Amino acid sequence: MKTKTKVIYILAILGLSLACSVAQSTPPAATEAPATISPPVTIVIVTNTPTPQPTPKPGLPGSVIYDDGNNILNIDPNTGESTLLISRKTLEETLASDRSADSYTYGEKHPFAVSFSPDLSKALITICADLDARYRCLFSDFVYTLDTQEGDKLPVPPDAYGVYWKWSPDGSKLAGAAWSYDRAIYYTTAFFAVNADGTNLTPLEPVVNDRWQLAWDLNSDIVHPLSYAMNFQSVFVDRSEPQDISLTGVDGNDRIECLSFSPDGNKVVFATRRNNPKNREWVYIANSDFTETRELTEYDLDPRYFCKVDWSPDGRFVHLRYEYDTRVETGEDKGGIEPRTDKLINVDTSTLLDTPRNLLLCGWTPDNDLVYETKTQDGGVQILTPGMNNPIEIPEAMQPAVLHCPVLWMNDQ
Length: 413
Known about the structure:
8% of the residues lie in helices and 38% in strands. It is mainly beta. It has a domain at 357-413. The strands form seven sheets. A four-stranded antiparallel β-sheet has the order 3-2-1-28. A hairpin with a 6-residue loop joins strand 25 and strand 26 (381-384). The longest helix is centred in the first third of the chain and has 24 residues, at 2-25. The protein is globular and about 60 Å long. The N and C termini lie far apart (124 Å).
């Protein structure tokens, strides 16, 4: 019995010794290092707005009518290829010699004016064809048909030196104010209308208050002389009795400066000024019959500038182009005039939009983008999305071909 107990005791001692040996050979559990405290991190926020990248397009639509001073060209904006529409040299040989270089009016060679009819089938050509005893230009006007390359000379009203002709919407007629001199004093005489073939010269009414501008109605038998609002009328080229137009909401003493109907013919936008203050412009929109007039916007403006309303093709925006009076025949001093500041208005929201100050606004592409001219000696054009001023990528071939504002950017149709 004692022997059995002794054996059990010995086994227990051996087991305890083995357990201790295993415990000592097992490495101690790893202990975590104390956390290291990092210094504060400075976060830098970059606030510079990245330069907008040009939006690529598969191709620019339509074609560009461009005047390089010598020729009128039709340019493909994607390839830069050009087609000659009108050569001034050829016109001088066939219509009349230009005497602008010999004149007191210009004092140097001056590219004579070319103005296209709405369907681009004809062009109004105005040439300094003769001089008076004081070496002032006596202007001759021709309607030149592009297909036949023939020109019809327009009659000159009695005692007039020239007429500020404007095309009717259908291109069948022209209307404008005649002007002359009383010894050394320039003055305007009366409004006239004439058929595009030079027939039927018709006096309409005297020019009053020196308001020589006019706008054609959507009806090619009606013109609107841009007078004071209280005297605003529809004047009929067949000499029917004029009809007064009431502009509700417009001060009767405001002068209408420019006017244009929307591409769909449903609306009209016009700008007005008044004698006090002289440096303020008001812009209105109305139905095409001049009802439901409402103000779009107003702003300060140098009163020496004339304006032109240029609708976007979709009718959502209007560009008001401002240009100082370039009629050299008036004898007015043109020095010291700052570059013009055009205006861009969202018609839907009556919002005046920002335009780049380093660019000269030209007009519209068929895709409702804006064309700008770069104000540098070398020139060049840019295309931007209206309101956002996002650049549209221009094909490399177009850049050397179009250096200044195009005459017109036509649709493919």
